[in-house]
Amino acid sequence: MQHAVLRCGASTTKRYCGPEIFHFGKTMSLNLAIVGTGIFATDKHLPTIANIKELTPSACYNRTKSKAETFAEKAGIKQENVFNSLEEVFESKSVDAVDALLPVQYNLDAVKLAVQHNKPICLEKPIAANLQQAREIVKLSSGSSTPIAILEQWSFLTVIKTLKEEILPKIGDIASFTYHSTGAWNDNNKYLATGWRQNPEHIGGFLSDGGVHQLALLTDVLGEVDTVSGFTKQLRKESGADDILYSTFKMKSGVIGNFTYGSAFGAADKTLRFTIMGTKGSVIYDFSPSLPKPTLSYQVGESSQRTTEKEVIEVDEIDNMKAEFVNFAEAVLSKEKSKIVVPPAKAFHHLAVIAAALESSSKNGTAVKVEEP
User: Fold this and answer.
1) What is the pTM (predicted TM-score) of this model?
2) pLDDT tens digit string along 172-196?
3) Which residues pair with 178 in a beta bridge?
4) pLDDT tens, 249-293?
5) SS3 per residue for the chain
6) What whole-number distance in Å separates Cα of residue 166 and Cα of residue 2?
């Protein structure tokens, strides 16, 4: 790790540079089929995949074929490789792996086909529409050698390693945390017009769609959640379901904390802040969009009288979407599904936390144990 250190008065500012993304010694390329060719596939997945030499967009499918044909033109995919059904995609001998961006209620169908035809697959989050489907995906994954990855890109944030390896050991036994991610409603959110988001079949709607990212960061740093006591509420009819969550978590480690999430409020600053308190210090990770760069600020000491000066690290994050696709390619090419950073069992836990929060809210805040796969 490299740090550029700047002295700023009584505090110390460091710039943290994330690690290089893994590259293979010998270039091999996988023929990748993209299924679900909507806005996110066009605006995010396609440009990312185009910059990864180990992946070549070679086929596509959409329930509305004209959309798939338009996508194929942008991706340089031959029109004969625009398939007519999901089954055709997985049956094709020219397809090495599949990138699925489907309404999540169809993820289980895609995984069944992937396992049946031994086609590695990565799926957009959340893992499934409900815990029953998610549990089936976990079972299918555990019984197969086929690599299955859930695209929860926040698990690739370099700040996770920095916190766990560099800072948390300095602040003693971890006692508690506060995770706060709130913001104003965005009328210009282009995904609002997506039917499966307006009328979600997946539990929690926007709470699970975005909340699993937040939970990936939280649990990668502090471990899994044991129980949840919380309240949810719907502020916007466009959300289709409850869209804010205020809750208290007890982690399996015994750490306790507050988890607040929602971007359905009126005019408000977008605030993303993760505070961790220990017996010998504390750390705050502030990644609010208003900041020039995300920052880690921490103090070490057992009391206010015995404390070091505050240190501030500016975090230069990597392209974590690119990192998750590189990880998927690495696992597929090496034929080692254990290399997948977010396998189904891990993604199940994140969705199960949202399910527990919703159940707790329906029971007036009673603590609910997070289900296991």
Assistant:
1) 0.91
2) 999 999 999 999 999 887 766 666 5
3) 258, 275
4) 999 999 999 999 999 999 999 999 999 999 999 999 999 999 999
5) CCEEEEEECCEEEEEEECCCCCCCCCCCCEEEEEECCCHHHHHHHHHHHHCCCCEEEEEEECCCHHHHHHHHHHHCCCHHHECCCHHHHHHCCCCCEEEECCCHHHHHHHHHHHHHCCCCEEEECCCCCCHHHHHHHHHHHHCCCCCEEEECHHHHCHHHHHHHHHHHHHCCCEEEEEEEEEEECCCCCHHHHCHHHHCCCCCCCHHHHHHHHHHHHHHHHHCCEEEEEEEEECCCHHHCCCCEEEEEEEECCCCEEEEEEEEEECCCCCEEEEEEEECCEEEEEECCCCCCCCEEEEEEECCCCCECCCEEEEEECCCHHHHHHHHHHHHHHHCCHHHCCCCHHHHHHHHHHHHHHHHHHHCCCCCEECCCC
6) 13
Q: Which long-range contacts (CB under 8 A, 24 or more apart) does 249-254 make?
A: 249/225, 249/353, 250/225, 250/226, 250/367, 251/222, 251/223, 251/224, 251/225, 251/226, 252/223, 252/224, 252/225, 252/226, 253/174, 253/222, 253/223
Phi/psi for 208 (5° steps) reads: -85, -35
For the chain, list the domains and their CATH numbers.
30-152+322-342 (3.40.50.720), 155-317+352-369 (3.30.360.10)
Distance, in Å, from the CA atom of 225 to the CA atom of 346, rounded to the nearest integer, reads 12
Write the Ramachandran bin of 365: left for phi over 0, alpha for psi from -120 to 50, otherwise beta: left
- Decide the pairing of beta strands 97-100 and 30-35: parallel
Write out the two tokens for 302.
Answer: 């057992």
Cα separation, 281 vs 108, whole angstroms: 44
- How far apart are the C-alpha atoms of 307 and 9, rounded to whole Å? 17
Residue where the block lists tokens 């044991």 = 226
Measured CA to CA in angstroms, residue 253 lies from 134, 135, 160, 173, 341 at distances of 24, 24, 17, 11, 21
